[in-house]
Design a protein that fits this description.
By secondary structure, the chain is α/β, with parallel strands linked by helices. The chain has a domain of 111 residues: Alpha-Beta Barrel (TIM Barrel), CATH 3.20.20. The chain contains eight helices and six strands, in the order βαβαβαβααβαβαα. A six-stranded parallel beta sheet has the order 1-2-3-4-5-6. Strand 5, helix 6 and strand 6 form a beta-alpha-beta unit. It starts with a strand and ends with a helix.
């Protein structure tokens, strides 16, 4: 089991750039909860832009605090958008150095251009000289069709380790109608390939991808009446996998 702690780098209320202490505190709350529950936690630097110094400071604190804890997976760049792969690669190499000063072995996830869809680019030019690196692919099933699965298959065939750190069944905006068939096609493919995956998101925002209704308690133990359509589908997928 794995959860993802998405820490906003510069957008929204209480982001790291405006309030680093608060952002670190919230990251630690999720990490500590995951450790207590004996599950994995992806610590996600949630940004579409390169901000090397802030990212370096953030991951220095997290890696120093939790070095040696096997639960931690570091995600150094959520979704690069217009950055080139050489730019993303150079940035990732710097953050990897920061993490490895404290934590030499835990898995590090590296993003790729165009919102983690250009997975073919790191497959052609991966980071070398490091261990336990994986590369992220993101999909929203109502937008991203078979072409993205085919592209990912080609990257895997070249030996690229792939982790799906964000996914869902609606459009890439996170809104609009869910396409259950397209989502099931992705779930079947994920199972066939044996890939790790995380869905977006455990939230009660007014958007399709948020799994919870506003009435859902923050303490959990949600009933079906607390879940929106995406939450019910995800719960069904997870229960099937745990049979």
């Amino acid at each position: 089991m794995v959860v993802r702690a998405a820490i906003s780098a510069e957008v929204g209320q209480h982001n790291y750039q405006d309030n680093p202490e608060f952002a670190i505190e919230k990251a630690k709350a999720v990490i500590d909860g995951a450790i207590a529950a004996d599950i994995y936690v992806v610590v996600d630097w949630h940004s579409h832009n390169i901000n090397l110094e802030n990212a370096r400071r953030f991951f220095d604190v997290i890696a120093k605090t939790y070095a040696g804890k096997p639960n931690i997976i570091y995600e150094v760049f959520n979704e690069p958008d217009d950055e080139s792969w050489p730019e993303v690669k150079a940035y990732a190499q710097e953050i990897i150095k920061t993490i490895r000063r404290h934590d030499p072995k835990n898995v590090i996830l590296v993003g790729c251009p165009r919102w983690d869809q250009d997975i073919h680019l790191p497959a052609a030019d991966p980071i070398t000289g490091e261990i336990n690196l994986m590369y992220t692919m993101h999909f929203y099933a109502a937008t991203h069709g078979k072409w993205l699965r085919d592209r990912t298959d080609e990257a895997i065939a070249k030996g690229l380790p792939v982790f799906i750190s964000e996914s869902a069944g609606m459009e890439a905006t996170g809104d609009g109608p869910i396409d259950p068939k397209a989502w099931q096609d992705y779930i079947d493919w994920i199972q066939q390939k044996g890939l790790s995956w995380i869905t977006w998101s455990v939230s009660d925002k007014d958007e399709t991808c948020s799994m919870l209704k506003p009435s859902a308690a923050s303490s959990g133990n949600w009933k079906d009446d607390d879940l929106k359509e995406s939450g019910k589908l995800i719960r069904g997928y997870l229960r099937q996998l745990n049979q």
